[in-house]
Amino acid sequence: MTAPAAAQERTRRAVRGYHEARFLGDVPAAAEHLGEPFRFESPFFSSDDRTGHLATLPGFVSIVTGVDLISELYGESEATLVYDVHTATPAGTQRTAEHFRLDDGKIVSILLVFDASPWHSMTAQIQP
């Protein structure tokens, strides 16, 4: 495997490992893929550390009924996933894009992008 291909594979393993652990509700396994410093940003919540981000996962996962991965793109130090999150809420299915930046094989930033308008009345359900 060439150096760029090896780096892309390392990125893929970290991002998919995080993605799968998160939606299984396995916070310790998800945490293994996060680096320091760490930054998370979404339409509802931002965090400048892993602890703040990870604290929100159990509440969010509690309303998820399924996830369908649509697309995954990997580079040497970044990745983008596009997926549908099926929820047990009036929002139903949420089309989501997530951009990751990595350093030394660990995720150091996540930018989550989705239409937040269906969620405004339900934010209390997904906040810690």
Question: Could you describe the 3D structure shown?
Answer:
The protein is of the alpha+beta class. The chain contains four helices and six strands. The protein has helices at 3-24, 27-31, 50-61, 123-126; strands at residues 34-41, 46-47, 64-74, 78-87, 93-103, 106-113. The chain has a six-stranded mixed sheet with strand order 2-1-6-5-4-3, with helices on one face. It is globular and about 50 Å long. The mean pLDDT is 92.
Helix-strand layout with pairing:
Blueprint: H1 3-24, H2 27-31, E1 34-41, E2 46-47, H3 50-61, E3 64-74, E4 78-87, E5 93-103, E6 106-113, H4 123-126
Parallel strand pairs: 1-6
Antiparallel strand pairs: 1-2, 3-4, 4-5, 5-6
User: Roughly what percent helix?
Assistant: 25-40%
Average pLDDT taken over every residue = 92
CATH class: Alpha Beta
**What is the architecture at the second tier of CATH?**
Roll
Give the tally of structural domains. 1
C-alpha end-to-end distance: 43 Å
Order of helices and strands: HHEEHEEEEH
Number of strands: 6
Short description:
Strands 2-1-6-5-4-3 form a six-stranded mixed beta sheet, covered by helices on one side.
List the keywords.
alpha+beta; Nuclear Transport Factor 2, Chain: A; six-stranded mixed beta sheet; 4 helices; globular
